[in-house]
Amino acid sequence: MTILQICQWLNDSPVGTSIRESDFSFDLIETAHVLGITLMAGTVAIFDLRLLGLALTRDEVSDVAGQVLPLTVAGFVLMVVSGTLLFWSEATKMYFNPAFRFKLVLMLAAGLNPLIFHRTVYRKVSIWELSQRTPAVAKTAAIVSLALWTSIIVSGRAIAYFH
Amino acid sequence: MYLLPFFEWLASTRLSEAMSASVWAFAVVEMFHLLALTMLGGTVLILNLRLLGLRLQRRPVQEVARELSPYALASLAVLIFSGALLLIDGPLRYYSNAAFRIKMLLLALAVIFSLTLHRRAIRSERNARIAAVISLTLWLSVGLAGRAIGFI
Amino acid sequence: MKLRLAVFVAGASLLAAVPALAHHSFSAEFDGHKPVRLVGALTKVEWTNPHSYFYIDVKDDKGNVVNWGCEGGGPLALSRAGMKRGDLKIGDTIVVDGYLAKDGSHLIDARRVTLPDGRSVYGGSPGDGGPPDTSATSKK
């Protein structure tokens, strides 16, 4: 089965169709998706700002991580669930939508960034956070994170502009 | 409402014509509006969670507020500025939109509350929980009303 | 190493998007200063969220038939405006008032639809700067 065929199958399925033609479900799911950006990206931005030494600097990096990142994860779950349902209802259109494709690739990168970060420089956080100087690599990860999530939000919004 | 002449005047300005003539201006402005709302939402959420005693408890409330307020205020400024540009793209369309009116009312309430009672609760640490709940409710409502604009 | 990775990712993303770009128009908005009235036979109806779409064949001055898209609200908005799914049948001639897409494509932001039975369904609100109400049988 090709990817397009899978998209068409999802699109035409009862679940996809009922969301797409609904009076309320689509709007509710989309609202959760749009406002969920705050929970996910708004919180990770604050952690990134901490890494860059621009906010909550009196707190240890690992403290901020422990306090803030669980919110980010909750937000991410919300985004994935609502996003999957939205995609399900418009899968065929999304297959052909350049902004959506771009967004997917960006999300892969956005997933790789924290993976690399947490497995490398963050492993030693208890050592470098005491010196109050965040390693350049960690700061790079923060900038990449901010740039990626900004681009993801922008391309997500741009989906609507490609008919 | 007596604001109609004002909105009609807005629709007649050159800025309004420029915004509506441009293919890309609305989209670009809307992106900034969305990004600023993300930042405002993040700071409002974490600050109020601190007020509720649920996050960052190791730090004094006043310190968390001091650290996050600049970002909240900057985001709010971008939201208001970009919002004004979005409005001027089609003033009459928004004037008659019930969700827009409600959003403006809620926005005014949220801003006034944030600058007065919310600040007092942070300073004195009294009524902290209720202030946090009100703040979260108001800002969430502004966001929901904003979404509703497109549905009406 | 990181820079090369970043460039690769950016390049890959753009490449992923290019095949889809070829088929699409980018219209961020409809021009409130360009009201349009289209009359044509319905060729397709998409009763969908976030927007519904009605496609009609419109004859231009030279007699050429051009297919236009008319973007309406979602199912809830349409039913609140008084339109039901069964109101439109393929082949019906409808009149659509709306605004032209800013990018010049054959797409309008449908504000008022006049159905074959003469009923007029208005998606906007009075005084919102929308197309003037010239029909006697309009519904609010």
What can you see in these coordinates?
The complex is a heterotrimer of chains A (163), B (152) and C (140). Chain A has 163 residues and is mainly α. Chain A has one domain (3-161). Chain A is built from 8 helices and no strands. With 152 residues, chain B is mostly helical. Helices cover 82% and strands 0% of the residues of chain B. The longest helix of chain B is centred in the middle third of the chain and has 28 residues, at 61-88. Chain B is elongated. The model of chain B has no long low-confidence stretch (mean pLDDT 93). With 140 residues, chain C is of the alpha+beta class. Chain C has one domain: OB fold (Dihydrolipoamide Acetyltransferase, E2P) (Beta Barrel). In chain C, 31% of the residues are buried. Mean pLDDT of chain C is 78; it is low at 134-140. The A-B interface holds A 27, 30-31, 34-35, 37-39, 41-43, 45-46, 49, 55-59, 63-64, 67-68, 71, 150, 153-154, 157-158, 161 and B 27, 30-31, 34-35, 37-43, 45-46, 49, 55-56, 58-59, 63-64, 67-68, 71, 140, 143-144, 147, 151.
Characterize this entry briefly.
The complex is a heterotrimer of chains A (163), B (152) and C (140). By secondary structure, chain A is mostly helical. Chain A has eight helices and no strands.
Q: Percent of residues of chain B in beta strands?
A: under 5%
What multimeric state do the chains show?
heterotrimer
> What structural category characterises the helix and strand content of chain A?
mainly alpha
Radius of gyration computed on alpha carbons of chain A: 18 Å
Major sheet description of chain B: none
Give average pLDDT of chain A, whole number. Answer: 94
Uncertain stretches of 5 or more adjacent residues of chain A? none
C-alpha termini separation of chain A: 25 Å
- Please tell me the total number of domains of chain A: 1
Termini distance of chain B? 19 Å
Instruction: Name the helicity range of chain A.
Output: over 70%
**Which structural category do the helix and sheet elements of chain B fall into?**
mainly alpha
The biggest chain-chain interface is: A-B, 30 and 29 residues
**Could you give the count of β-strands of chain B?**
0
Shape of chain A: elongated
The low-pLDDT segments of chain B are: none
Name the shape of chain B in a single word: elongated
The SSE order of chain A reads: HHHHHHHH
